[in-house]
């Protein structure tokens, strides 16, 4: 797992896009999100959090994974970003989750098509929606970590105080704005936005 010195830095503009995608996914894909069981959801969220380096999200989802029956060996592999020890039924989703996080959400449409071929359209949409939700959590968690580390004398030299504060406060305005915007958007197959 990365420490906050190696965590990805999310800016305000990127976070705004992440919030919009997460709110859209939560509003339009509620049924599909329910197709992902808690253990699978935790594994997806750990895969994304490992790529982004969010120690807060990693801690929370490690606890969820353990309580949902993940073995310590499988968990160790997930925390190292290695899906070799993962359930074969989950491997395609975990690879896609890593790819999504690694490309900042600009994933290869062919990779999503393979996800649809593997899991079907509804479950693939649920997987993508889950990934978008944890990306939102990571953008906030990493900046919160940077902010609190600053007061412990462990400031990340690449992070700026104004960015940390803006990213932590922006959901107060952007979640309601995204909800209103997405209220009138038609449900479409999740694609690169």
Describe the model.
By secondary structure, this protein is mainly alpha-helical. The protein has a single domain, classed as Up-down Bundle (AhpD-like). The protein contains 10 helices and no strands. It starts with 11 loop residues before the first helix and ends in a 10-residue tail after the last helix. The mean pLDDT is 91.
Output the keywords.
193 residues, mainly alpha, AhpD-like, 10 helices
Outline of the structure:
By secondary structure, this protein is mainly alpha-helical. The protein has 10 helices and no strands. The protein has one domain: AhpD-like.
Q: Give the % helix.
A: 55-70%
Task: State the secondary-structure class.
Answer: mainly alpha
- Individual helix count: 10
Beta-strand content bin: under 5%
Shape category: globular
Determine the CATH topology. AhpD-like
**Could you say how many structural domains there are in total?**
1
- End-to-end Cα distance: 29 Å
Largest sheet: none
Radius of gyration computed on alpha carbons: 16 Å
Low-confidence stretches: none
Q: So, CATH architecture? A: Up-down Bundle
- Per DSSP E runs of 2 or more residues, the count of β-strands stands at 0
Task: Output the CATH class name.
Answer: Mainly Alpha
H/E element string?
A: HHHHHHHHHH
How much is the average pLDDT? Answer: 91
CATH superfamily: AhpD-like
